[in-house]
Amino acid sequence: MPLGAAWYRLFPTDAPGYGFVAATIPELTIGVHEKARGLGVGGALLQVLLRAASEQGRPALSLSVDRKNPALRLYERYGFRDAGISQPHESSVTLIATCEPDTQTQH
Question: N-acetyltransferase domain location, by residue (predicted)?
């Protein structure tokens, strides 16, 4: 049984994703099987993708998450911060994390 999946991809300005920040910032997508949540799978996936993005010279990764989703705290532990483009009344918030070597160890 797969425990989860994660990837990032670039979106053009004229066809942005939900967590779009800029055409040069890849947007992260992650999902962890319900039975595997809380076991470190999400953190491991984030760590690998942040490292890969850094090695590829990506300046940052972005994502969108529901403000009530418990995964929000996971993202914050790995350096994701409010990108400042979501409105406080919106149910989701767009986050961004810089892809520097120290971002992989903030868990």
Answer: 1-100
